[in-house]
Structure formats: C-alpha cells, structure tokens
C-alpha cells in the first residue's frame, strides 16, 4: 500500500487487462490488477468492439487499484491499431466502433487506388497497404454514404476514445494515428493532401500529440466513482505494438524485434522512415514509435490462427492448454507450410476447416490431429519470419544479428526455436508483457522519472531476463 504506481490499460486481441507498474531503483515490477475478455461482437451486418462494456471493465481495474490503496501517478491506454470511434457535435459516441475484421473494407484498396497513386501514396505515408487500415475503413464509409460519417465531428482512435471518456480531452496520439495510413511519414502529421484527394471530412482529424504527453486528468465523476481522485491520463505509445517495441530489452542498434501476439510485427527501429520502392514492394510499413523513432516492420498474421483453433476446440468441449499442445506439436511431424497471410485465414467461420480445405485445394499434406495442426501453423509462421527477415535485410545497410521476440507469443518455446532455426541467428524471448511495460515506462518518462528511450530500455534490461534460443538444424 501507499506504493507509487502507474496503470496500463491494454486492449489486445486475446484479452484486455489493467496492469500496475511499480518503479523503484531503476527496476520495474508488474502486478496484474484485472484481466477480461476483449470480445468482438457480431451484430447484424457488422463486427463491433464492445466499447461500453470494455470501458466498464477498465473502470473496474481502476477501482481495484484504488481499493489496494495504491497512489496512482498515471493511467495510459493502448489498443491494437487502426480502429476508431466517431464523436458527434455533443461529444457523444456515434455507435459502437467497428472492428477491423469486419468485411466492410473488402476490395477497398482497389477503390482507393483509383483515386490515389499507389507508389506516391507509399512515398508520402510509408504505410504497408492493408485493407484493415483506417483509411480504407473511412473510404468504405464514404462510398456507402454512411450516416455516421456525416454526423461525425471528430475521429478518435480507440486509445484516444478511452482517454477522451476518462478526461473529456479529445486528440490523436501519434503512434496509433500512424496506423491510419493518413499521416505524412516525414512530417509526422496528417497528410492533408491524402485526406483531400479522398474527399474525407477534414474536420475529423484532430491535434496530434506525442507519446509522453499528459492528456488531462480524470473527470470528476470518474475520479469519484473509481476512488482514484485526480490522476493524470498520459499519452503513451498508444498503439500496442509501439508500446511493446519501446520495451525491447536491448539498447544496441539495429534493434530487431518480433512483437508476437494476435499479429506478428517483425522489423527494426529506425530514426527516419524508409520510403523506398524496395520497402514498398516488400510490404514494409513505417509506423510511429516512442521517442521519435520509426517502427519499420511487416504486419504478418500471427498467433491469431492458433488462437482461433484453440477457441474452436474449447467450444467443442475439448479444452486445450498451450502447455499441453505445444509439447505435443514439438513431437509431431508434418511438412506442410501454409501462407499465413492468405485471406482464407483472415476471419473464416471455422479455422480448422479453413486450414484443412486450404491443404486439400493446394494438394498439401493434410494434418491429421491437433498436434499436427499446431505444428503446421507454427512452422508456417517461422517460415514466414524467415522470408520477412530476408526482405528486411535487403532494406538495411547490414543484416540483423539477433531477434528479440516480445509479447504473449514469446512464451511459445517451439515457435521460438523454429524461428531461431529458420533465421540462423539467436532469438531472445521476452518480456511477455512488453506492451504493458512500454506503456508504464512511457508514463514514467512523461513524469520525468526516466530521461529518454535509452534509459527506458535499460530499466527493461534490469527488470527482465529473456530466454535465449540458438539456431539448431
Ligand atoms: P494480443 O495483445 O495480440 O492479444 P498477447 O501479447 O496477449 O497478444 O499474446 C497472446 C498470444 O500469446 C496468444 O495468442 C497465445 O498464442 C500466446 N500465449 C499465451 N499464453 C501462452 C502460453 N502459456 N504458452 C504459449 N503461448 C501463449
Ligand atoms: C497488434 C496490432 C498490429 C496491427 C493490428 C491491427 O495488436 O496493433 O500492430 O495494427 O493489431
């Protein structure tokens, strides 16, 4: 009790959580306060965030922290990229935000590139074209004459939205804004040209703030309801991947990372965006990072496939735990490699059927049991990482020499080993809660407890011990 702590609210594809971080003598300790499901809700024609329920879950986490008697110095929020809510002229949320796995963006890139020149667009925004990105979500709303878009006064990315309802302050944090594909990569501000050419309402796009900025304080009613009193809400690398990358336990450049969760984000940290044609063709993205850095990375479908399989097996009453299935998969033998980024695996009704059908249609050996299915998914991921690193190395002055895997997926020992084998370089696994760590330490930076990103990472190095995997073949 009476501990000085920061609270991170992290909304990931697997779950939402409120985590407390306690920083003392250059070392960070975490305590999970509250974990809750982050379900996507299918209603009528769309797939939505369950925003009001998640806001309540977050407040429950805040209340629990207050009940523990902690002295809360800040609250920071991060979520996955690209999704947003729209606010009307009264400051109210217009409808539940739509989740990026919604079908509304199908075919949108082709529509957008009737209007924009694709190569120039990359040279401006530096973002890998993915149909899920905010730009394509907005363009689909425009083409469908969506009434929400007509009513909207401001667009808030999900972390901006959570923060807005905590503080009443509405602005756009830089890292998450970069996932919109609507920022000028060099200026690090809205690309007015892109917005105008697409005919999107210019008033939607607010002030861009940098991670490490105080957004505001808790609104009085929320301060009272949670029992927290007046607490600062701080802009962190509010794109979960930006927070995770800030917490890579390494200080020697190039910092090569694989943020492994629902998605696999593989890349390096650089000082300036790489906007070359080679980078574009290799589908690398330049997302905004903490401390003015750029995350030069590829978005790869990650453990989503395994997550879905596990939940399907559970729904059939065949409860499976990672601790059982991964050792079984380690023993399994199957040669099949599937292209994890194929649209077949984006959001199928049934993942196991999608996988089996894919193998059948492409005359690949069909996995016969759960262990073989899991093995197939993991070796397909490792194979994809190898291709990504090869492309990455071609964009860099010298090849990467080690890879830091962070996030929940870094607990997957088989995947870590297969990755080391494929890449032929050492792999360092951990921390699991990199996102929460980056979130919390960026708050400490805003409060002047940490000088810069380098010092932040030294704290991470003092606080965690990654597992090393050497290549075996
Ligand atoms: P996200 O924020 O995208 O939900 P997380 O960083 O929480 O991602 O990671 C979730 C992933 O971590 C799951 O998809 C799962 O594959 C992996 N994971 C979780 N627990 C374990 C475990 N005990 N062993 C291996 N992998 C695990
Ligand atoms: C990972 C992530 C990733 C992408 C995707 C939508 O959780 O944020 O970086 O932006 O989700």
- Which small-molecule ligands are present, each listed once? adenosine-5'-diphosphate, 6-deoxy-beta-L-fructofuranose
Largest sheet: 7 strands, mixed
- How much of the sequence lies in strands comes to 15-25%
Report the average pLDDT across residues. Answer: 97
What is the overall silhouette? Answer: globular
Cα separation of the termini = 51 Å
Q: With helices defined by DSSP (H or I, 4 residues minimum), what is the helix count?
A: 18
Low-pLDDT stretches? none
Say how many strands there are.
21
Radius of gyration: 21 Å
**Residue share in helices?**
25-40%
Order the strands across the largest sheet as they lie in space: 17-18-16-15-19-20-21
Decide which structural class fits the backbone.
Answer: alpha/beta
What report would you give on this structure?
The protein is an alpha/beta fold and 473 residues long. 39% of the residues lie in helices and 22% in strands. The chain is built from 18 helices and 21 strands. The chain has helices at 51-67, 108-115, 118-125, 134-143, 147-151, 158-167, 174-178, 192-198, 220-226, 240-246, 277-281, 304-315, 322-331, 351-361, 370-395, 413-423, 434-446, 453-463, and strands spanning 4-11, 16-24, 27-36, 41-43, 46-48, 71-79, 84-87, 154-157, 172-173, 183-184, 189-190, 208-209, 213-217, 232-235, 256-260, 263-270, 285-288, 294-301, 403-406, 427-429, 467-469. It has a 7-stranded mixed sheet with strand order 17-18-16-15-19-20-21, sandwiched between helices. The chain has a 6-stranded mixed sheet with strand order 3-2-1-6-14-13. The chain has a two-stranded antiparallel ribbon with strand order 4-5. β10 (183-184) and β11 (189-190) form a beta hairpin. The protein starts with a strand and ends with a strand. The model has no long low-confidence stretch (mean pLDDT 97). Bound molecules: adenosine-5'-diphosphate and 6-deoxy-beta-L-fructofuranose. Residues 12-13, 80-82, 100, 179, 239-241, 261-263, 265, 299 line the site of 6-deoxy-beta-L-fructofuranose.
């Amino acid at each position: 009790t009476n501990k000085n702590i920061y609270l991170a609210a992290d909304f990931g594809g697997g779950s939402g959580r409120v985590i407390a971080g306690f920083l003392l003598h250059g070392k960070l300790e975490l305590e999970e306060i509250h974990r809750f499901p982050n379900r996507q809700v299918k209603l009528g024609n769309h797939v939505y965030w369950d925003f009001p329920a998640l806001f309540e879950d977050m407040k429950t986490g805040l209340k629990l922290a207050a009940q523990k008697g902690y002295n809360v110095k800040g609250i920071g929020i991060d979520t996955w990229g690209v999704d947003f809510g729209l606010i009307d002229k009264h400051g109210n949320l217009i409808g539940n935000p739509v989740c990026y796995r919604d079908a509304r963006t199908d075919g949108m890139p082709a529509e957008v590139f009737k209007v924009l020149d694709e190569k120039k667009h990359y040279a401006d925004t530096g973002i890998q074209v993915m149909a899920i990105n905010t730009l394509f979500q907005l363009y689909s709303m425009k083409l469908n004459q969506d009434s929400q878009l007509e009513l909207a006064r401001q667009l808030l990315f999900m972390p901006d939205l959570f923060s807005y309802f905590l503080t009443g302050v509405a602005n756009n944090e830089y890292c998450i804004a970069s996932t919109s594909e609507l920022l000028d990569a060099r200026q690090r501000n809205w690309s007015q040209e892109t917005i105008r050419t697409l005919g999107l309402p210019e008033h939607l796009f607010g002030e861009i703030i940098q991670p490490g900025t105080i957004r505001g304080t808790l609104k009085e009613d929320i301060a009272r309801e949670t029992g927290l009193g007046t607490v600062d809400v701080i802009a962190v690398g509010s794109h979960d991947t930006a927070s995770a990358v800030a917490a890579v336990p390494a200080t020697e450049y190039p910092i090569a990372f694989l943020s492994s969760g629902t998605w696999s984000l593989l890349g390096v940290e650089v000082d300036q965006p790489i906007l070359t044609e080679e980078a574009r063709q290799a589908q690398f993205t330049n997302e905004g990072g903490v401390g003015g850095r750029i995350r030069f990375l590829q978005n790869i479908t990650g453990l989503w496939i395994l997550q879905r399989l596990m939940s399907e097996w559970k729904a059939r009453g065949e409860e499976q735990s990672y601790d059982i299935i991964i050792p079984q998969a380690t023993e399994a033998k199957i040669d099949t490699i599937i292209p994890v980024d194929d649209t077949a695996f984006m959001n199928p009704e049934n993942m196991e059927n999608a996988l089996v059908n894919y193998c059948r249609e492409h005359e690949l050996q069909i996995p016969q049991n759960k262990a073989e299915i899991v093995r197939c998914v993991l070796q397909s991921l490792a194979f994809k990482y190898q291709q990504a690193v090869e492309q990455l190395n071609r964009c860099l002055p010298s090849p990467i020499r080690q890879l830091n895997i962070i996030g929940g997926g870094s607990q997957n020992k088989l995947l870590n080993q297969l990755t080391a084998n494929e890449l032929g370089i050492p792999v360092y696994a951990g921390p699991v809660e990199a996102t929460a760590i980056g979130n919390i330490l960026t708050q400490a930076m805003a409060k002047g407890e940490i000088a810069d990103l380098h010092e932040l990472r030294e704290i991470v190095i003092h606080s965690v011990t990654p597992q090393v995997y050497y290549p075996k073949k």
